[in-house]
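Table S2 (continued). Query chain:
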Amino acid sequence: MRFIDHIRYRLDRALLPAALFAILAYFAYHAVQGNYGLLALRDMESELADLRVIAAELSTERLVLEARSAKLRPDSLDPEMLGERARDVLGFARASEKVIILH
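Corresponding output:
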């Protein structure tokens, strides 16, 4: 009986530290590997950098389109731009232009 009591006493003394270690290991694992862990943070930061590059490209494209659309406004109408858009939309060509039809 004394041997079993000795083992039970040792297990009781080791149970609390083992449980605390298991909890600590669980939280440490999820701090690194979890949805909001260090590895996910690294992935999100690289994705953020990619999205910033895309946003910069779209911003410059927007500026180009705004500049082109400003030429079509009634207060600052560019005749060449108007003629180009009319020929493009209506499908007309000038007599001096050559049309190549691709199938």
